[in-house]
Amino acid sequence: MTLDASAAPLLTVRDLHVSFTRGGHTVQAVSGVSFDLFEGETLGLVGESGCGKSTTGRAVARVIAPTSGSVVLGDIDLTTCRPSVLRRERTRLQMIFQDPISSLNPRRRVRDIVAEPLDIWHSAKGQERTRIVTEMLEAVGLDPVLAAPCYPRQFSGGQCQRISIARALVMRPKILICDEMVSALDVSIQAQILNLVEDLKAAYGLTVLFIAHDLAVVKNVSDRVAVMYLGRLCEVAGADDLYRSPRHHYTNALLASAVEPDPDAPRTHAPLQGEPPSPLNPPSGCRFRTRCPRAEERCATEVPELREIEPNHHVACHFPVEIRDRAA
Amino acid sequence: MSTSAPDTAVAPDAGTERPTSGELLEVTDLRTTIRTPRGPLVAVDGVSLRLKRGETLGIVGESGSGKTVLSRSIMGLLPGRGTMLTGSVRFDGQELVGAPESLLRSIWGPRIAMVFQDPMTSLNPVHRIGRQIAETLRLHLKLSKKLANQSAVTLLAQVGIPSPELRARNYPVELSGGMRQRVMIAIALACGPELLLADEPTTGLDVTIQAQILDLLAEAQRMRHMAMIFVTHDLGIVATRTDQIMVMYAGRAVEFAPTHQLFANVRMPYTEALLHSTPRMGNPSHTRLAAIDGRPPDLVSRPPGCSFAARCPYAQDKCREESPMLVADAAEPDHFYACWYPRGTSTPVHPQGAPSDA
User: Fold this and answer.
1) Given this model, what pLDDT does residue B2 score?
2) What pLDDT, on a 0 to 100 scale, did the predictor assign at position A267?
3) Where are the domains of chain A?
């Protein structure tokens, strides 16, 4: 998919900060994240645990309140608008979570779970409500006659994830935020759900923010991919471009660490030693500098800003990876 | 029962002969039945395998395929009540199925060790990690307290834990997931086992940490000439780090081959489906995945015929009626598969039942 950079983005996130305070310590989970989400695209947000990718997703959906920064949907800033406006706007922005079983109320029937947003907004009753629920269940590949009267415990993880998707789509949102939605599923079921997301995206004209740790999964569904490390974005580029020629040293290491089901793939050794520093006390300057092979003095003193080094390829690094010297 | 040094064999039972083949582990027709309220569930259904010293076997399957139950059955780590184990597990000539617990205890640790998926629940949260490693050494190797503590620090250093003297005094909760898994590996390696069972050792870890742990295991195996069984759901992890792979589906081995042959010439449709449904970084984005419709059968009321028939795009009537045996490929005698209408080109020879006939 080609992106028209001149088009106005559907969602604009600027300088988003989220910090949590506990026991006198402040964890900077997200420190200045900015990105645009264009209509009809899937933006993958990838990173390791603790990098702040889920917190970013939650702050965008206003499940949690950001410490500072702005999230603009259309022409409304979700961080500053009145609660009643936020409530209305949120129906256009739905979220799907990792654990499909715990995100469904075990004591409610599938038809009521799916219809709950309709009930809240009094937007459909009686036969109309049943019709919409039937349509949504069919759209996610469940048999409405069999599924509607059942409880979540009667379904497998993959089927519960389908129910979650039906619930998220029932208000016809513009944006879907998927937070590790296939991580708990087996490969064969994961493929079903990923294909379903692609189909629904086309059928309902959705724009997707797809948050996951699995590099291959993210590449499969995304048009563009953003890589996150310790609360900041390192690199944002088109999916094929980013995986072919990563320019940030962290992206490069991340890609080299991934395993592929191919016995002839070069058996690379762990390209990164050690573990990410604590977000309680992140390194000065570039947050990756403590593990970066190219780090110099400047990296400790000056925070690298996300800049466009090639068309549609943004990287936050003072010394980006040269195309020639990429690690194998 | 007296505990012997790791490299001296424990006293064999009467009638046990020494193996001549050099196989460290021989599993024959192993069947694990678990009693459930709905009836007996055959979690592992007639699995056979052989493993030599220094070799690595990957066992791959989705959840519920029986891969974890198989690895625990091999080790004899199943609760006695409600679980029935038949068949044979011979470890260095010693029969483990039905062996008294005293014998198993002398083997667990010094000769067969296990690394589990979840390092947090496998470690004791109220003991310092150094003590947990030293405990193994004192029990099995009869080391003095002082020597055991010193060895624990050495082991922590060997598994790549920075400042091991300080870390030995930490509690598990003070360590990250990757560090805890290193501690688990240190405990498993403490007594120099001949066979290491790693059950999803990197699931739940980040990719950069996973790469470190996989390197660590490979290095430990090479240094100690250990045999290793790698249980995982991820074909990617076993593709470059195993000598042979067994693919399990619904409690049965459905394909078993040397790693390169398996990937080069997939015969079983389930293995093929697993490969095609895995997203790959090498493919362009938005590549349509070949999803497998449906889900695995209920193991309490298993349908007749091939367990995969209901999801298999190539299934015919025979598949739904008769259960295929594991047969050897005519062209590749090390390559076994259980399928009436295999993928690929060569035709099978007559059924042989188990890879042990190879």
Assistant:
1) 38
2) 67
3) 11-92+173-315, 106-171
The whole-angstrom distance between B327's CA and the closest CA on chain A is 23
pLDDT band at residue B345, thresholds of 50, 70 and 90? low
Query: How confident is the model over A259-280, as pLDDT tens digits?
Result: 888 888 776 677 888 888 888 8
In a domain, B236, yes or no: no
**Cβ neighbours of A268 in B, within 8 Å:** 211
- Please indicate whether, in this complex, the C-beta atoms of A216 and B63 are within 8 angstroms of each other: no
Q: Give yes or no for residue B36 having a pLDDT over 50.
A: yes
**Cβ contacts (< 8 Å) between A261 and chain B: which residues?**
234-236, 239, 263, 275, 278, 280
Confirm whether B316 is domain-assigned: yes
Q: Of A187, A213, A272, which has the smallest distance from its Cβ to B277's Cβ?
A: A187
Q: What is the DSSP string of A36-93?
A: EE-TT-EEEEE--TTSSHHHHHHHHTTSS--SEEEEEETTEETTTS-HHHHHHHHTTE
pLDDT given for residue A324 in this prediction? 56
Please state the domain count of chain B.
Answer: 1
CATH annotation of A11-92+173-315: 3.40.50.300
Which chain A residues are within 8 Å of B233, Cβ to Cβ?
186-187
As a whole number, mean pLDDT of residues A123-135 equals 94
Q: Which of A195, A216, A275 sits opposite B291 (nearest CB)?
A: A195
Of B162, B212, B281, the CB nearest to A216: B281
Residue identified by tokens 């695209």 is: A41
Taking Cα atoms as reference points, which of B287, B292, B302 lies closest to residue B269?
Answer: B292
Report the distance separating Cα A197 and Cα A140, nearest Å: 9
**Closest-CA residue in chain A for B240?**
A263
Q: Is residue B65 part of a domain?
A: no
- Is B330 touching A (CB cutoff 8 A)? no
Judge contact between A191 and B292, C-beta under 8 A.
yes
User: Would you say B277 and B295 are in contact if contact means Cβ atoms under 8 Å apart?
Assistant: no
Within-domain flag for B348:
yes
Q: Burial code of A179-215, b = ≥16 C-beta within 10 A, e = fewer?
A: bbbbebbbbbbbbbbbbbbbebbeeeebbbbbbbbbb
| Domain range enclosing B340 | 265-279+289-357
Q: What is the mean pLDDT of chain B?
A: 86
Percentage of chain B modeled with pLDDT above 90: 59
Task: Say yes or no for a CB contact (<8 Å) between A191 and B233.
Answer: no
- Distances from the Cα of A315 to the Cα of A250, A293, A322, angstroms: 11, 16, 12
Q: What's the distance, Cα to Cα, between the start and end of chain A in Å?
A: 28
List the single residue in A with minimal CA-CA distance to B214: A270
- d(C-alpha A232, C-alpha A283), whole Å: 12
